[in-house]
Amino acid sequence: MTTSVPAPASPAVAFSVAGVSKDFPGVRALEDVSLAGYRGEVLAICGANGAGKSTLARLISGQSAPSTGRIKISGYDKEVTSPADADDAGILFMHQEPVIVDEFTVEENLWLKQLSSAGKNRSWRVIPKRRREESLEALRTVGMHEVTLGQLGKTLTPGLRQMLALGRTQVTPHRILILDETTASTTEEHFKDVEALVERERAAGTCVIFVSHRMPEVFAMADRIAILRNGRLIEVLKAKETNREEVVTLMVGEAVRALEAVPTPSFAGIDPVLEVSGLCSGSARDINFTVHPGEIVGIYGLVGSGRSSIARSISGHQNRDSGTVKLYGQEVSPKSPGAALKNGIAYLAEDRRREGFVKDFSNGDNMTLATLGQYSKFGVLNPQQERRRVDELIERYKVKGDGKTLTRSLSGGNQQKVCLAKWIEAKPNLVVLDEPTKGIDIGSRLNIYQIVHELADEQKGVVVVSSEAEELLMICHRILVIRDGELVDEFQSTESNTDDLMRAALGGEL
């Protein structure tokens, strides 16, 4: 299967960025950036929220035009000023939020770019039968062995939606591949498929631009690392000649140390906030566990293990088949997120863009969405009181912009802090966080870790679902491991490591 168009017989430079700046209303996103990428290399672009990483990726791919400066794609004579130009130049841009049409089949989504230009003389959704084996091979290449070609896009989990989008690399000719936070939705086992895909691209002479917040992934794949801070290119380093601490220091301007594992306090004689007994929901079966006031409990497992089914059924986002959920000893059976919140349970969804906030609302509107009653009397809203509280929340959670800023315009980390503020403002007794740091840079991750610890200090019960073992070991007191829908093991964070969790999740194999 062809993954790249023939590379031009020119110098090894794949693209060059010369003196590029980009202005948005009131904001300079990039300032005089000059950078080159080479054929057969992986160039990582790293930086904190708002550093300009995605802006640079969008400029190279023709999604946006620079305010000043020039971008040159080797082997392409024109400037790339549109996605159509990018296609002609051999640039394939993979977004953080995968472009998947819910009502299209897996196969139709796989060939989406080709189908959109199929011509007027035939149905553009007709895929030749001769491409069936090519489609199946593309799915196998990205680890989607259990997915069928006729399955609808809307049935896929966020991780599988991302892997399906990555499958397009196998059926779309290209010379430059841009991965803009495309591993944010994938889990540790699927990252191996991404790593293998990137290695094949490198061997084929593709220039891979890898935008990521995940340092282990950057060092696993990158040849060079370009570091942006506040819109400026700070340094370009060879991955083999640097380390995580140096890169993080350059990203944020000061050294950031990983949090130490939190010691587990004694909960002897203390009634639990949450008791889950015999829970069956989705792929989860007969789940039993407790969470005490001030305790942070992690839930770890691979894709399809049932970890998110547990979180969603507790919080009213998914029906339970059987079992009981008790909050402070009282059984609760919320049928909706609103009912769960009335019972004192808040849930931060894995997919913040689809479930976390209203895209056309401002920060203020989103932050107070779950608590409007606090600022109303006899059904009449007090806007002054609401604005004062929004200002306090923006300052407390360190959210960029003000109450009138549209949440959709913010970086992923700031969007997540808006979502957290909304639910925590409702003063729940139990907070369930599903992949709370997905697609978020190191600085914002530390902000969110601090918020989680503050919740525990306030004697809230906290459940954190994550596909990152290292993250759970840093922020949780106790970690439950789910495999094939069953709770198979439990670990104390201070007495365990990532190998322990991954072996349990994989059934003893690593």
TrEMBL record:
One of its GO terms (molecular function) is ATP binding. Keywords: ATP-binding, Nucleotide-binding, Repeat, Transport. Residues 15-255, 268-509 form the ABC transporter domain. PROSITE patterns: ABC_TRANSPORTER_1, ABC_TRANSPORTER_2. Pfam families: ABC_tran. Signal peptide: none annotated. SMART domains: AAA. This is Sugar ABC transporter ATP-binding protein. It comes from Arthrobacter psychrochitiniphilus.
